[in-house]
């Protein structure tokens, strides 16, 4: 079966292409008796050089588009053999098929739901629940997680190669009760391919007179239908966001997005969710390239509790579950507000068929306050321009946690990425006299929120005015001259110091708040006409906590990428995931550590920047029963790239567009159409 080529080689697989891929694979296996599931189906992106050559030539049509390929991961059951298959949609056939053992792909959402239903019916699980006083198993809920590690023989610690989940246990007093208010005291270890419970791991109270914790039965609701309606706030007036003339952006060919001077391609897959590529900015008559590809490539959530079974928890939400797999269907007025354009996302089910996530991606504009302003204190004349940004976002639900993932593009050529962490704490139970310190915080009687971190890694593939870039570290330090020196007479001098990374071993660096450390992505072959220095973009983050598990720990060995704030590597096709492609139950030091074992040049060449940012979360009582949003992210700003403020050509806002003032002095302003200048 041959599918007609799409215009852009990075367009995600369509519904029709999913059907075609599944059909080709099933036909190739029709003579086998082996049972199997489709773990994932995704566009196999063409080599970067092919994509760039085709896009540069697309109007001349001298080049054929790159082959349209899909990467398919099948899991044989019960053997667990992994089939890594490349399907050419251009040729309508399989072009590569490799069988692997000892590795585990992402946990599919349907696998997790399937595992929950089997675990609930297991006799060992039922027995544990009965001992806690639970006789109705319909009140028991299990959150299936990938296992951080599992040793079949604890006396000989070696990672079990079976496909394993851990089931975190909870109770509900009603169908939509908050289960995290009622954690149970044991975890189920489950063989996914054999579909059987391997072991029950029970937690033991510490410094307690009790042998076993009882279930906390007090409800802690947050859904409005379970709250006292008389106590809901009544003094909130509506806020309306309207764009009477429509939005300022356009979407072409389903995935090409243009907004004022920004141009980009929007992609989506099961693993990274939203992917932004081919980003350019119109500077006068020149369309200047900025980035080839940006995505959230991995994350790790290490938990602090050192005791069984909680020390198995170190979630890699990108590699173990997939951001696309966990993406919500967004709703107007709830998740996005304003004049919205939605894009759907498509993933595969266990049969390889397409599963459409309606309204997976939200695109809209936001007013974000001032872009710039100045008041002449002599004349009193003021000039104000309000800032607007383009937002491309999706929201995922990873069991208890929810993450809002936001790409922001600004009118001054700046870019920002922000994560809004919310949802519910992953809780565990305490005995009545048990103290969770120092590894957790009580958020309700007998309920503890465990201390943990959220460490995210962004993969940034820059093209600052071309494919060859360098990365420069900038630290701001006091001048070395002592007070009274001719070059520092009153001691006030401070200055930036810079280092351009030459090799991969130089570019494995932690952040440094004491020196206000940031980085610049520069193009050394293009000098700014004013500064005579390379044009570039500044990269900075205020959210760069160190990874707290000790060196040599299982979490640190598996998530080496999170031990540094910055890594820089030479571009290689296929190097997308810093924790390795097969991240689930992974071996130590795969991904970035492997790619940087050999010292390689990263100066004035095609490079990839890997940035770690995140949060250290010590839960508060106020984070329960549902957590207010906490944010983290990073900024990229032009630095010696343009000839001046690129937003200076934005016309001033009209006072009339701000609706009306509630003050009595605004009467004339309401009637007159005048500018903020």
UniProtKB/TrEMBL annotation:
Top-rank taxon, per record: Eukaryota
Cofactor(s) named in the record: Cu cation; Mn(2+); Zn(2+)
Enzyme kind, highest EC tier: oxidoreductase
GO process annotations (BP): amine metabolic process
Catalytic residues, chain numbering: 317, 401
GO molecular function per UniProt: copper ion binding; primary methylamine oxidase activity; quinone binding
InterPro entries: Cu_Am_Ox_Cu-bd, Cu_Am_ox_TPQ-bd, Cu_amine_oxidase, Cu_amine_oxidase_C, Cu_amine_oxidase_C_sf, Cu_amine_oxidase_N-reg, Cu_amine_oxidase_N2, Cu_amine_oxidase_N3
Annotated catalysed reactions: a primary methyl amine + O2 + H2O = an aldehyde + H2O2 + NH4(+)
Subunit structure: Homodimer.
Cofactor binding annotation: Contains 1 topaquinone per subunit.
Residue ranges annotated for the Copper amine oxidase N3-terminal domain, each copy included: 110-201
Protein name: Amine oxidase
EC id: 1.4.3.-
One Pfam family of this chain: Cu_amine_oxidN3
Domain Copper amine oxidase N2-terminal: start-end pairs: 8-98
Keyword Manganese: yes
Residues of the Copper amine oxidase catalytic domain: 239-647
Gene3D superfamilies: 3.10.450.40, Copper amine oxidase, catalytic domain
Family membership: Belongs to the copper/topaquinone oxidase family.
Positions of modified residues (2',4',5'-topaquinone): 401
Record keywords, A-Z: Copper, Disulfide bond, Manganese, Metal-binding, Oxidoreductase, TPQ
